[in-house]
Amino acid sequence: MALISTRRAPAAVIAICFAIGSAGLVTRTMAQNTQVDLNAADSMRQAIEMHAGKRVKLKLVSGQDVEGVVAKVGSHAVSLTELTGMELFDGTVRLDQVAAVIVRRAAK
């Protein structure tokens, strides 16, 4: 009986490794296919929404930068937490005041 379980163990380990590797590949593929429709009226909202839960820098029309973690994106405003330089503060920015969304890309 011990002989049978030791033969199945390597197969199970291989199957688990394959499943984990495949899941990572699917996630990367889905992330690469997610694009913003630049001609849409709400393209800025879409660009910010794609990075929900991640750190972004918003360049405002006034020239100021606001950097923080995207907490929530609405139809007219975005809520940021953990503001850089003001970690104890949260902020809300009107979407019509956002000139650019700057994100750090993943290292290859």
Could you characterize what this model shows?
- The chain has 108 residues and is of the alpha+beta class.
- The chain has 2 domains: 1-34; 43-102, SH3 type barrels (Roll), CATH 2.30.30.
- It contains 2 helices and 5 strands.
- The protein has helices at residues 2-33, 43-49, and strands spanning 55-60, 65-73, 77-81, 91-94, 98-102.
- The protein has a 5-stranded antiparallel sheet with strand order 4-3-2-1-5.
- The radius of gyration is 21 Å and the shape is globular.
- The N and C termini lie far apart (46 Å).
Task: Give the structure's gist in a few sentences.
The longest helix has 32 residues, at 2-33. The protein has 2 domains: 1-34; 43-102, SH3 type barrels. It is 36% helix and 27% strand.
List segments where confidence is low: pLDDT < 50 over at least 5 consecutive residues. Answer: 25-33
Largest sheet, order of strands side by side? 4-3-2-1-5
Q: Based on helices, strands and strand pairing, what is the structural class?
A: alpha+beta
- For the secondary structure, the number of strands is 5
State the separation between the terminal residues, measured CA to CA. Answer: 46 Å
Helix/strand layout:
Blueprint: H1 2-33, H2 43-49, E1 55-60, E2 65-73, E3 77-81, E4 91-94, E5 98-102
Keywords:
2 helices, SH3 type barrels, five-stranded antiparallel beta sheet, globular, alpha+beta, 108 residues
